[in-house]
Amino acid sequence: MNDSSWGAPPRAGFWGPPDQGPAPAGPAYDEHDAQQTRPMPIVPDFPDAGRDAEDRGDRDHRDDSNDRDRGAARLGGPPIRDEIPQEPMPTPPAAPEPQKKRAGRDLRAAIGVGAGLGAVIVASLFIVKAVFVGVIAVAVVVGLWELTSRLEERKQIKPPLVPLAVGGAAMVVAGYVRGAEGAWVAMALTALAVLVWRMTEPPEGYLKDVTAGVFAAFYVPFLATFVSMMLTADDGPLRVLTFLMLTVVSDTGAYAVGWRFGKHKLAPRISPGKTREGLGGAVAFAMGAGALCMEFLIEDGTWWQGLLLGFAVAVSATLGDLGESMIKRDLGIKDMGTLLPGHGGIMDRLDSLLPTAPVVWLLMVIFVGSG
């Protein structure tokens, strides 16, 4: 903005030289007007303004230098996206190798325990029959203890263990001494003892406790009594050995074939691990073993009887295994006990043996008689 906009000529001595008279004629140039139209510098009224201006000048100079350097780098250097060093891309992990099927249990422990139990059973079976009856009684008592303990833990059902254990052992001995008649009498007395024993406790839960007690008496000791009845025949040890071998071979065939070829579930709601292919393996293995046993071990036995016997054993053993699996699934447990490493408890080994015992006893009586 110039002074003419203010509306009056400037006075002498104000911003310009003193008045020296009229200006000489010449071109239209007024030194005073030229000085007044020159822009005036704005001087701040605080003392550090000059220093700040210098600082700003230095910063501007440095910024200009940096801009020139960056421009040169862009012209002669790598592309802009590569100015920041990039870390090397990590190598993608190798795809995991497919895992092989593994057994659900410790096979070494299972084989070792199984071999030890087999040695004890065979030794007692062929040395003194009465000793083998004692082995059956001990297994029955331990099995009853496992079953009643799990019922109390998981369902708050308390079958009386004392009458069950005493009656169960007596049942096995009665079957060996008095046959089927003695087994039925011992079973009835055991059930009566369970009813009376439970009366000594409060009535709450009486019905479910005695019902579970009678079921346990039938499921464990009564079915085991048929093993002691097999032992009373002249070739009793060989009959019992055939019964044990066929059951073990059936379980082994089901496990081996099902683990290797099993694809179609047999009863997924009860036991997801069992397959139809495994059942076929159980039948095939048991029938082959049955034909050999009946032909070479059992007097007056024939191979075709062994085929029928093996088929019946495979079916009954599978049903027994499924039956205990149903009980364990209802209780929410995997094993009935932990006494046998690699196997679980005693009841986990008796599951297929118990329902198979009456089947083998009956077929042996039909095929070769009771003597």
Which tags fit this structure?
single chain; 371 residues; 65% helix; two-stranded antiparallel sheet; globular; 2 domains; mainly alpha
What features would you describe in this structure?
- It is built from eleven helices and two strands; from the N terminus they run H-H-H-H-H-H-H-E-E-H-H-H-H.
- Strand 1 (265-267) and strand 2 form a beta hairpin.
- The longest helix is centred in the middle third of the chain and has 38 residues, at 161-198.
- It is globular and about 55 Å long.
- The N and C termini lie far apart (140 Å).
- With 371 residues, it is an all-alpha fold.
- It has a two-stranded antiparallel sheet.
What does this entry show, briefly?
The protein is mostly helical and 371 residues long.
Low-confidence stretches: 1-39, 43-55, 71-83
Major β-sheet profile: 2 strands, antiparallel
Number of domains: 2
The whole-angstrom Rg is: 51 Å
Assembly classification? single chain
> Level of helix content?
55-70%
Broad structural category: mainly alpha
Number of helices: 11
Q: How many β-strands, per DSSP?
A: 2
Distance between the termini: 140 Å
The 3D shape can be described as: globular
Strand content: under 5%
Following the backbone from N to C, one meets helices and strands in this order, namely: HHHHHHHEEHHHH
Give the strand line-up of the largest sheet: 1-2
State mean pLDDT (0 to 100 scale). Answer: 80
Element layout with pairings:
Blueprint: H1 31-37, H2 49-76, H3 107-127, H4 129-155, H5 161-198, H6 206-230, H7 236-261, E1 265-267, E2 271-275, H8 276-296, H9 303-331, H10 346-350, H11 353-368
Antiparallel strand pairs: 1-2
Helix pairs in contact: 3-4, 4-5, 4-6, 5-6, 6-11, 7-8, 7-9, 7-11, 8-9, 9-11
